[in-house]
């Protein structure tokens, strides 16, 4: 639990966007389109994992949730509204400052930490999420091992990340940055993981993948669950055995 996985250049890049994070028309506009789709997936996995009725408003009541690479809290806040006791950690102090300010304005009690995941006080969590983060760390295997160490027995982990395909290189890196859909320098295509590579890392950390689905473009909504995994995909995992 002592591996340093933060890439300081990546942290600085995202920290510079902190003030804009909650603006759906700003530099994080793509995240605002992604977030409802990711949330739908997480909710689906929560309901299946803990046998919760889909109509239940607080499916995470009594549970602890950890979001790693939380940015300014775009996922932490809905998890808190689902009833969880939420902790968010991010590499950029600027993001954590923005997250704390926004949560306070919403009347939400969320614990936020800036820095390495390994520096968090010892604790395990029922739900561990890390969305669009593993492609930004210096050591993906160490990072996944750190996530696994934070997952409570019987817990659920959900991850999302871009796939390393020619299509993602063309659309997510070259085209998206050229037209300003994402800020320049956001993605390093060589750091993207194929699903089988991420699965291998999860298995190496003692986890098993229980679900995987594509996150693909939708003319109507921007993104949708299912369909091709060529651009982006989500996985759910739990402790093996």
- SSE class: alpha/beta
Helix content: 25-40%
CATH superfamily: Vaccinia Virus protein VP39
Q: What is the CATH architecture annotation?
A: 3-Layer(aba) Sandwich
Shape descriptor reads globular
The total number of structural domains is: 1
Reported for the largest beta sheet, the result is: 8 strands, mixed
CATH topology category name: Rossmann fold
- State the strand order across the main sheet: 3-2-1-4-5-8-6-7
Tell me about this structure:
The protein is an alpha/beta fold. It has a single domain (8-239), classed as Vaccinia Virus protein VP39 (Rossmann fold), CATH 3.40.50.150. The chain has helices spanning 8-15, 29-50, 76-81, 93-106, 140-149, 166-178, 195-204, and strands at 64-68, 85-90, 111-114, 125-131, 151-162, 207-218, 222-225, 232-239. It has an eight-stranded mixed sheet. The protein is globular and about 45 Å long. The two termini are 22 Å apart.
């Amino acid at each position: 639990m002592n591996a340093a996985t933060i890439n300081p250049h990546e942290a600085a890049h995202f920290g510079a966007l902190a003030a804009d994070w909650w603006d759906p028309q700003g530099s994080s506009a793509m995240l605002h389109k992604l977030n409802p789709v990711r949330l739908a997936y997480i909710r689906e996995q929560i309901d299946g994992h803990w046998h919760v009725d889909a109509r239940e408003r607080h499916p995470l009541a009594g549970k602890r949730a950890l979001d790693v690479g939380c940015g300014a809290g775009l996922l932490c806040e809905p998890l808190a509204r689902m009833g969880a006791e939420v902790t968010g950690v991010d590499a950029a102090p600027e993001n954590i400052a923005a997250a704390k300010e926004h949560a306070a304005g919403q009347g939400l009690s969320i614990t936020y930490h800036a820095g390495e995941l390994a520096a968090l006080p010892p604790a395990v969590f029922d739900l561990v999420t890390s969305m669009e983060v593993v492609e930004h760390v210096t050591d993906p295997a160490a990072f996944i091992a750190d996530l696994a160490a934070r997952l409570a027995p019987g817990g659920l982990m959900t991850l999302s990340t871009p796939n390393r395909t020619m299509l993602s290189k063309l659309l997510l890196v070259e085209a998206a940055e050229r037209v300003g859909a994402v800020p320049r320098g956001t993605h390093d295509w060589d750091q993207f993981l194929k699903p089988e590579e991420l699965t291998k890392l999860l298995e190496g950390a003692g986890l098993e993948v229980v679900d995987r689905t594509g996150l693909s473009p939708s003319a109507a909504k921007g993104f949708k669950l299912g369909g091709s995994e060529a651009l982006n995909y989500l996985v759910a995992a739990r402790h093996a055995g």
